């Protein structure tokens, strides 16, 4: 296993161990095209979401209880997950609270069906 693969594995394992739920997205031929992950913060209405298509192509957002995006990052999977995991939990005094003026580009949350064919509007593969 390369160092990059090991870092990716550690990031995804840390999210899974923290209670994240993941779902694969496939195209009409059954090929894996992206993986979506979500974590709902208990009792807050806030959620963190992650979408990645490759180790160099990831997007993460945090939404508040109204669905407004209060934090967003794009980049490599390891970099994005590390930044996401350093965010203070919702309700903490240093938590991002101001809406960025966009709605969540990843419409899936655990307990709800995935919306087929949806991808972030402002996000294009690299």
Q: Largest sheet, described in full?
A: 5 strands, antiparallel
Order of helices and strands: HEEEEEH
Number of helices: 2
Strand order of the largest sheet: 1-2-3-4-5
Query: Total number of β-strand segments?
Result: 5
Low-confidence parts lasting 5 or more residues at pLDDT below 50?
108-126
What share of the residues does DSSP label as strand, in percent? Answer: 25-35%
Category by helix and strand content: alpha+beta
Radius of gyration: 14 Å
Principal-axes geometry comes out as globular
What is the averaged pLDDT score?
78
Helix content: 10-25%
Gap from first CA to last CA:
24 Å
Descriptive report:
- The chain is an alpha+beta fold.
- A hairpin with a 5-residue loop joins strand 4 and strand 5.
- Helix 1 packs parallel to helix 2.
- The longest helix is centred in the N-terminal third of the chain and has 15 residues.
- It is globular, with a radius of gyration of 14 Å.
- The chain starts with a helix and ends in a 41-residue tail after the last helix.
- The relative contact order is 0.18.
């Amino acid at each position: 296993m390369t160092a990059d693969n090991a870092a990716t594995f550690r990031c995804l394992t840390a999210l899974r161990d923290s209670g994240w739920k993941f779902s694969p997205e496939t195209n009409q031929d059954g090929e894996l095209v992206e993986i979506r992950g979500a974590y709902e913060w208990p009792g807050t209405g806030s959620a963190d979401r992650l979408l990645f298509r490759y180790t160099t192509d990831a997007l993460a957002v945090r939404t508040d209880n109204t669905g407004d995006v209060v934090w967003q990052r794009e980049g490599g999977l390891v970099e994005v997950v590390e930044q996401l995991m350093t965010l203070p939990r919702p309700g903490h005094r240093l938590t991002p609270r101001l809406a960025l003026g966009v709605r969540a580009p990843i419409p899936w949350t655990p307990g709800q069906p995935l919306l087929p064919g949806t991808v972030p509007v402002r996000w294009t593969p690299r």
